[in-house]
Design goal:
The complex is a heterodimer.
Chain A lengths: L1 E9 L4 H11 L3 E9 L5 E9 L2 H13 L3 E7 L4 E12 L5 H11 L2 E5 L3 E8 L1 H11 L4 E6 L3 E4 L8
Antiparallel strand pairs in A: 1-3, 1-4, 2-3, 5-7, 5-8, 5-9, 6-7
Chain B lengths: L2 H11 L4 E4 L6 H7 L6 E4 L3 H15 L3 E5 L3 H15 L4 E7 L15 H5 L5 E4 L6 H13 L6 E6 H5 L29 H13 L3 E5 L13 H10 L4 E3 L14 E4 L6 H9 L2 E5 L18 E6 L13 E4 L2 H11 L6 H14 L17 H11 L5 E4 L3 H9 L7 E4 L9 H11 L5 E6 H4 L5 H7 L5 E6 L4 H10 L15 H7 L3 E5 L5 H10 L4 E6 L9
Parallel strand pairs in B: 1-2, 1-3, 3-4, 4-6, 5-6, 7-8, 7-10, 8-9, 10-11, 11-12, 13-14, 13-15, 15-16, 16-18, 17-18
Helix pairs in contact in B: 1-2, 1-6, 3-4, 3-15, 8-11, 9-11, 10-12, 13-20
The chains are: A alpha+beta, B alpha/beta.
Bound molecules: thiamine diphosphate.
The site of thiamine diphosphate has 19 residues of chain B, from helix 14, helix 16 and helix 18.
Chain lengths: 163, 554
């Protein structure tokens, strides 16, 4: 099962290596990991999507908590999860097909970010299912390259992780 | 003052009087200042790993953090085994390493090693000191982190240029680690949850066959105050028998009526039977690892109370019905407040009967009758009789460790120290040196094999140089005994790479260091040899000839 963990950490050099080292060492499977500073620039938020049963998830959270640089961890429940991932997708495209791609982008809520004679690059921010559907739609045109940010997430509602 | 001087002052303020270390260019500014301290004595070891092990031995005996020091690159790398060994046994050491100059870091210059990165899996926390002004805060944090919560090693890496920087620091204003520094991500729990304590009491009240299992956590004392007295009170008050893991040896007097011995694959039958038949198992600071668990395999496992400072240990190896996260001294005090007085006559009588009949694994060894070698069991019998009650024994790794764990019987106040989690050969002699430094009045004896002795005998020089009067007992079987045994049992007796031919005459070797010694091969001489060893006012080496085919379980 997939789990989303929201982790607040000290914005120090070396924090990421401590965290990724811990995952590797203990055999935890990371699906995606995204980092960025928070409203407090001394603190970063890491969003980790990890694979595992409840036991594994509990161990991940407990072992992460032992790192001195880790300030707070929350495993966000599926139904409370507001999650997004940004995907850039470059599709091979001759000029006569361009309008088709623009139409797909429009119905999918994606943006056209770059156009060249032989390609179109689209941009979509969405949850995992929508990204997958979007990718499937574009597949017939010939996908040249994809870049994804990894999932970032917040809990829905007024609650926040910081104190 | 310079950062190097500030470092010395901070260490003095933390109550450090001994540092084990080995210098090199990148830690020279610190050594220069250290030489002017009237408080701290530097003990020059002969290999950096042994600086770490010696610090570990000292920390284990005092319950306080101890310090080891090495230079950059190879010096720091040599420390890693010791850091990892301390990590696995949750021992509070503060390791200080020199590093190449800040502006050269990352350029693969001479003697540069990324020690922060390399040691990362084995430290509780680590610091690279970039901003000299932060040093006092870092030192206080390091000592605080090393000793609180689940103790463990903390590494401080200091580039040589930083050591020269002048900082504005007044030692009088130093906030030592007794005042908890405010670290956002580090707030170890101290007291057990009240509701859980109530459930513990209820469970003890209902239990007919309760059992306490003590682990290394019993020695993870807060500020030098150990938990084993509280545990004894608990056991006696509620009439609960006590077993322990290898790490828990000497947390309970072996001659106590409630004592049932060590569990595990190398443990005592009474302890393993008790574990299998109890209806309530109270784990005190024991993580119960893979070597200890096999006994716990029946279909209807007991109810488990797990007291541990580290939430991550609870539920990792065993499912606990009642987890209690907290400092062991504190939790035991909480339990004692409302612990009911109980009697478990039937249960204890049953265990005592097993104790007297099976007497552990002690079937008579076949070679008991040989008169040209020493039977380890007989040797320990005499040793137990002659040792002062508060003796400190450090055991190495291998058969000598299992023999010691199983047959050593320490009195009240005695202490057993070994590398339990990592099983690091070469631990016993430096650990004994560290222990003896902190308790010069106590008898401190290292017991090792002839294999492991050759990984650490250079430290005899350290003992001689610094008048550290340790005794060393070498159980000599001319083999890497434990590996030989594995080869015999699992590899069709294909004995390979376990013969120690070419070893020196250990007595002559000791003499070369100016140390006296004796070789013991006749059973009738055991008494005399041990009396001489104990009477020696200087370091002493006793070589005990043991049959090469001797088994670990006697
Ligand atoms: C540093 C290190 N290397 C290798 C081992 C693997 N090992 C475990 S026990 C053992 C044999 C130890 O031989 P010796 O010190 O002579 O003790 P004995 O078993 O004969 O009592 C070895 C090699 C280890 N534990 N530590």
């Amino acid at each position: 099962m997939k789990h989303t963990l929201s982790v607040l950490v000290e914005n120090n050099a070396g924090v990421l290596s401590r965290i990724s080292g811990l995952f590797a060492r203990r055999g935890f499977n990371i699906h995606s990991l995204a980092v960025g500073v928070t409203e407090n620039e001394a603190i970063s938020r890491i969003t980790i999507v990890a694979q595992g049963d409840d036991y594994t998830l509990e161990q991940i959270a407990k072992q992460l908590n032992k790192l001195v640089d880790v300030i707070k961890i929350r495993s966000v429940k599926e139904e409370e999860l507001l999650s997004r991932e940004l995907m850039l997708i470059k599709v091979g495209c001759a000029p006569d097909k361009r309008h088709e791609l623009v139409a797909i982008a429009e119905i999918s809520g994606a943006k056209v970010s770059d156009v060249s004679a032989q390609s179109v690059t689209l941009e979509l921010s969405a949850n995992a299912q929508r990204l997958a559907a979007f990718e499937a739609l574009l597949n017939p045109y010939g996908i040249r390259e994809i870049a994804r940010t990894g999932v970032i997430a917040l809990q829905k509602g007024a609650n926040s992780l910081n104190t | 003052m310079t950062t190097a001087k500030a470092l010395v002052k901070c260490l003095e303020k933390e109550g450090i009087t001994t540092i084990f270390g080995y210098p090199g260019a990148m830690i020279c500014p610190f050594y220069d200042e250290l030489s002017r301290s009237n408080v701290i004595e530097h003990v020059l070891v002969r290999h950096e790993a042994n600086a770490g092990h010696a610090a570990s031995g000292l920390a284990r005996l005092t319950g306080k953090a101890a310090v080891c020091v090495a230079t950059s690159g190879p010096g720091a790398l040599n420390l890693i085994t010791a850091i990892a060994t301390a990590y696995m046994d949750s021992i509070p050491i503060v390791a200080i390493t020199g590093q190449v100059s800040s502006e050269q870091i990352g350029k693969d210059v001479f003697q540069e090693a990324d020690i922060m990165g390399a040691a990362e899996p084995f430290v509780k926390h680590s610091y690279l000191v970039k901003d000299a002004a932060q040093l006092p805060r870092i030192i206080a944090e390091a000592f605080y982190i090393a000793t609180t919560g689940r103790p463990g090693p903390v590494l401080i890496d200091i580039p040589v240029d930083v050591q020269f920087v002048e900082i504005d620091f007044n030692p009088e204003n130093y906030q030592d680690s007794n005042t908890p520094p405010d670290i956002r991500g580090y707030k170890p729990s101290v007291a057990g949850n009240k509701l859980q304590i109530k459930r513990v009491i209820e469970a003890i009240e209902q239990s007919r066959k309760p059992l306490i299992c003590a682990g290394g956590g019993m020695f993870a004392a807060k500020r030098g105050k150990f938990a084993f007295e509280a545990m004894r009170e608990m056991a006696q008050h509620a009439d609960i028998p006590v077993i322990h893991t290898m790490m828990g040896i000497s947390s309970f007097p072996t001659d106590h009526r409630l004592y049932c011995g060590m569990i595990g694959m190398h443990g005592k039958a009474t302890a393993n039977r008790a574990l299998n038949e109890c209806d309530l198992l109270i784990l005190l600071g024991a993580r119960v690892n893979d070597r200890a668990i096999p006994a716990l395999t029946k279909d209807t496992p007991p109810k488990i109370i797990h007291v541990d400072i580290d939430p991550a240990e609870i539920g990792k190896n065993l499912n606990a019905a009642i987890p209690v996260v907290g400092e062991i001294c504190m939790v035991l005090a909480q339990i004692l407040e409302t612990l009911p007085q109980k009697k478990h006559n039937e249960w204890n009588a049953y265990l005592n009967k097993i104790k007297s009949t099976v007497s552990g694994n002690e079937k008579t060894a076949e070679n008991n009758a040989r008169t040209d070698v020493i039977n380890p069991r007989e040797f320990y019998k005499t040793l137990n009789r002659l040792l002062p009650r508060d003796t400190v024994i450090t055991a190495d790794v291998g058969q000598n460790q299992i023999w010691t764990a199983n047959h050593l019987s320490l009195g009240e106040g005695g202490r057993f120290i070994t590398s339990g989690g990592m099983g690091t050969m070469g631990y016993s002699v430096p650990a004994a040196i560290g222990a003896k430094r902190s308790a010069p009045e106590r008898e401190v004896i290292a017991i090792c094999g002839d294999g492991s002795f050759q990984m650490q005998f250079m430290e005899l020089a350290t003992a001689v140089q610094h008048d550290i009067n340790i005794k060393v007992i070498i159980m000599k079987n001319d083999r890497l005994g434990m590996v030989r045994e594995v080869q015999k049992l699992r590899y069709d007796n294909n004995q390979t790479a376990v013969f120690l031919d070419g070893s020196p005459d250990f007595i002559k070797l000791a003499e070369a260091y100016g140390i006296q010694g004796e070789r013991l091969c006749e059973p009738s001489n055991i008494d005399k040899a041990l009396i001489t060893l104990l009477a020696s006012k200087q370091p002493y080496v006793l070589v005990v000839d043991v049959d090469a085919e001797e088994r670990s379980l006697l």
